[in-house]
Specification:
The chain has 422 residues and is an alpha/beta fold. The protein is built from eight helices and 19 strands. It has a seven-stranded mixed sheet with strand order 15-14-13-16-17-19-18, sandwiched between helices. α6 runs parallel beside α7.
């Protein structure tokens, strides 16, 4: 997920433009409701109905009877937060984080981890069902993360205003209330150490990010901090990570998987699913800084990375300088794919790692033109993945298997590995 798609990773808010479903409820923030929690929605929140208005219940598990406080009344739903739980689910656990609920970054800390994995598998399976070309595929069990906490190597903090001026934290997705965060339990310890050094000192800033090399200890803070903060280095443009013995130079603006340990597991899964045995030609579309190109190079005869971003290609070439079977093409994917076909190159495998919005039509066209024997799609959004898999199947490929991967424990997000054959 890199290059052309970096900007597309930013969250897009879809504004509801339909009829006002909540106007007649006469509810205000702070009101208490008694609700029966139903299935999770796309936000990872349990749902219910109040008259004809949808209700989301943060902190609930389907099947529970709860009392919940109204957080915000939207035109299309009422957002609530669990207070008391009258009939707890067998899967309920005590959240470890003191900010859970107040901060909306983790949706599922109140659910035991084994059940989180089951829910994510079911989410992927449900996303495939609307498509005739996909619904018969059996979805594998979710690959668990090696760490359930402390796994994130990248954090972006908001800086408060007014009474919270200079204080770092996050904003609740529904209330938009600023929440001071002194320790985020899903972050790498070095992120929290950096946060502790900066907390309360960030006057005149609106946000900042911290990225760490989980296996190298390298830390960068962006942007350049105010001149009076001299004890925390900042403004560096790159950091170094190491995965499976390979060193990666990563620009501050470039994408890199946030769960380094699980990235190592993903590589093992991809090698197995693609049946890579050290020969054949593999094309990595939108290869970014060369992460998969480098990590899969020991298992292929030749690897060709295609990337439009000049800075990403520059990093990718540095990252693959120690291997002799990887090359990069700096070009639009569809143009490079056409050139490879015209050169008579036979492609055994292709890998593509799109953003949450899914594959660009030109990326799907590039895959059709390349006509590889096997395609591995690495997707972080089951809905857009299913849409794109259906389009690929309708252009002549066949979906063989799907394996969910938990890159983001305690949250609703799920990665998937989808294998297609030509």
């Amino acid at each position: 997920m890199a290059g052309l798609f970096n900007m597309a990773k930013r969250k897009r808010r879809n504004r509801y433009r339909g009829p006002d479903l909540t106007a007649e409820l006469e509810l205000d923030a702070g009101d208490e409701l008694t609700l029966k929690a139903g299935e999770f929605d796309e936000r990872g929140l349990a749902t219910s109905m109040l008259d004809s208005a949808p209700v989301t219940i943060a902190g609930a598990i389907p099947g529970e009877n709860v009392s919940a406080k109204v957080v915000k009344v939207y035109r299309d739903r009422v957002a609530t937060l669990v207070g008391e739980v009258a009939t707890p689910s067998e899967h309920r656990v005590e959240p470890r984080c003191r900010y859970f609920g107040e901060c909306s970054g983790c949706q599922w800390q109140h659910i035991d981890y084994g059940h989180q994995l089951e829910i994510k598998r079911a989410m992927v399976e449900a996303a495939l069902q609307p498509y005739e070309t996909l619904r018969e595929i059996e979805v594998g069990e979710t690959l668990p993360s090696p760490s359930q906490f402390g796994y994130r190597n990248h954090a972006r903090f908001t800086v408060g205003r007014g009474e919270e001026n200079g204080v770092a934290g996050f904003k609740n997705a529904d209330s938009r209330r600023f929440v001071r965060i002194d320790e985020c339990l899903i972050m790498d310890d070095r992120i929290n150490e950096t946060l502790g050094k900066l907390q309360g000192r960030l006057d005149r800033m609106t946000q900042f990010s911290v990225r760490v090399g989980a296996n190298t200890g390298d830390v960068i803070v962006q942007p350049l901090l105010p001149a009076e903060i001299q004890d925390v280095p900042s403004g560096r443009q790159r950091y170094v990570e190491e995965v499976r013995g390979a060193k990666f130079q990563v620009a501050a603006s470039s994408f890199f998987q946030v769960n380094t340990a699980q990235l190592e597991s993903i590589v093992v899964e991809i090698v197995s699913m693609l049946g890579l045995e050290g020969d054949g030609t593999l094309v990595d579309l939108y290869c970014g800084v060369g992460t998969f190109a480098r990590l899969l190079s020991p298992f292929a005869g030749r690897v060709i990375g295609i990337e439009e971003s000049a800075s990403a290609v520059a990093d990718a070439r540095v990252n693959c300088a120690d291997v002799d079977n990887v090359e990069f093409i700096e070009a639009k994917a569809e143009l490079a794919a056409q050139d490879l076909v015209e050169a008579g190159l036979e492609i055994d495998c292709a890998i593509i790692d799109p953003p949450r919005i899914g594959c660009h039509p030109q990326a799907l066209e590039a895959l059709r033109v390349l006509s590889p024997q096997r395609i591995m799609m690495v997707s972080c959004n089951p809905t857009t993945m299913s849409r794109d898999l259906d389009l690929l199947c309708r252009s002549g490929f066949k979906l063989v298997s799907v394996r969910p991967v938990d890159m983001f424990p305690q949250t609703r997000h799920v990665e998937s590995l989808a294998l297609l054959e030509g």
